[in-house]
Amino acid sequence: MKYLAQKILLLVLLTATLLQGNSFRKTGTVGYTFLELPAMARQAALGDAVGAVADGGAVLSLFANPGVLGLQNGWHFGAEYSPWLAEIQHNAVGLVIPAGLIGNFGISVNMVDFGKMTHTGTEGHVLGTYTAQSLALGITYSRRLTDKFSWGIRLNGIREEIHTFISQNVLVDMGIYYLTGFNSLRIAGYINHFGVDGKFIRDSFKMPTALRLGIAYDLWNTPRYRLTTAVELSHTADNLERLHVALEQLILKRFYVRSAFKTPVNEDPWSFGVGIHWDKIRVDAGVIPFGRFPAVYSFGIQVTP
After folding, report:
1. Phi, psi of 172 (to 5 degrees)
2. Each residue of 76-100: pLDDT tens digit?
3. Predicted TM-score (pTM) above 0.85
4. C-beta atoms surrounding 210 within 10 Å
5. 81: which residues sit within 8 A by CB, 6+ positions away?
């Protein structure tokens, strides 16, 4: 376990070095940008600072840090719905499958439907309408190596379709999760959307690779109340480094209030959300104010049979 952890950490550091090659803003230089949208309501409410969040994070780990999945128990199913800007529909579904000593498996679907758009000819004549969709089908495997350390890997099959044109690729996510033993402090490191360049028609483009390092800590924890803070540093292939800071307050062991701030961001630095955990059902809602644009809402449910 020790040598495996060292290899994973080395891989994280090497990737960080590669991503640090340019420090200027690189917006618009990658494809498959739908993968950068928060797939779950809790993820949106916490400003994407979820890499070190394990409590109730079984389905969440299928879209963020795969290393968290190894410490989860039992079956979990989750579904998310988010009507985005410009009538874009964002939906996600995840299933966690326990496999005993082998580890845990997960299946995830992340889909964005851009709706119908007007198809015009070269002279401006309307020829009808066409559609555009983006889809990521993921298979996650994660294993607990000790009661404090787990690692995970995910393969994502990506497909984007605009009218009759199609782009496809396979991306890899890798992550680790570690309970330090110092009170409730836990740390995480993970890489998302790593892969070779994609191609659309005759043009190639980079992947939206992101390196994330995060910590989480319970500022206080009683039998009925808990306040958790999460801090995460992200480095994406198409933007500057960002700092994500989130708070999640658990009330009476059932109700959640969440808020987060990330910087530097132009339109959506703040996010908020609420949730309720009742028996084997978790329901979450999140909102991201977009400044000059309408706010984006997301809703999700997670069930443990």
Report:
1. -120, 135
2. 999 999 998 888 999 999 999 999 9
3. yes
4. 24
5. 89, 90, 91, 298, 299, 300
